[in-house]
Design a protein that fits this description.
By secondary structure, the protein is of the alpha+beta class. Strands 5, 6, 7, 8 and 9 form a five-stranded antiparallel sheet that branches. It has a four-stranded antiparallel sheet with strand order 2-3-1-4. The N and C termini lie far apart (63 Å). It catalyses: 2 pyruvate + H(+) = (2S)-2-acetolactate + CO2. Pathway: Amino-acid biosynthesis; L-isoleucine biosynthesis; L-isoleucine from 2-oxobutanoate: step 1/4; Amino-acid biosynthesis; L-valine biosynthesis; L-valine from pyruvate: step 1/4. GO terms for molecular function: acetolactate synthase activity; acetolactate synthase regulator activity.
Length: 186
């Protein structure tokens, strides 16, 4: 049978069509990167993402070892399993990077974020905002006659839920730190 006479529904096998079955499912991953604390390192890490069109949902960075001059970058990103593997491999090739850990696959981890929310309102809305803050264990860190600034710490979805409830009560502004994460256990 020639190539022109292939039956309907039949599959042609060729060395060019033998691609592995890649997943199109988008996954959320938290990646911790230990880097040298020197100028330009963060720009190189961010450049890797922006240059390839990868999205960063959350980014935190701080020095974690003053004597060793090391910083930890925590990145929350979304992509297919193949994209996540590619990100980790490319991060590992950056000269100033010491370690790359995908906390999502290495085991159970703890993620926390800090947020401050300014809620403007009066009367019954103020009372309701205080009641909800108590339920969510948010602290009042500033108060005026017509506004509160709440501080809340927790998993990102907890902060999202608190912000959603504060919107109809007068949420005027929100500031979030981004995710900090560690593996659980030893």
């Amino acid at each position: 049978m020639s190539a022109l006479h292939i039956k309907k529904g039949a599959t042609r096998h060729s060395a060019y069509n033998l691609r592995p079955n890649f997943s199109d499912v988008q996954e959320r991953h938290t990646i911790a990167v230990l880097v040298e604390n020197e100028p330009g390192v963060l720009a190189r890490v961010i450049g890797l993402f922006s240059g390839r069109g990868y999205n960063i949902e959350s980014l935190t960075v701080a020095e974690v070892d003053h004597t060793g001059h090391l910083s930890r970058i925590t990145i929350v990103t979304t992509g297919t399993p193949q994209v996540i593997e590619q990100i980790k491999a490319q991060l590992g090739r950056i000269v100033s990077v010491h370690d790359v850990h995908d906390l999502t696959v290495e085991g159970p981890s703890v993620e926390r974020e800090l947020a401050m929310l300014k809620v403007v309102g009066d009367g019954e809305k103020r009372v309701e905002a205080l009641r909800l803050a108590d339920i969510f264990r948010a602290n009042v860190v500033d108060s005026t006659l017509n506004s509160f600034v709440f501080e809340i710490t927790g998993a990102p979805d907890k902060i999202d839920a608190f912000a959603d409830l504060m919107r109809p009560l007068g949420l005027a502004e929100i500031a979030r730190t981004g995710v900090a994460a560690l593996l659980r256990g030893d």
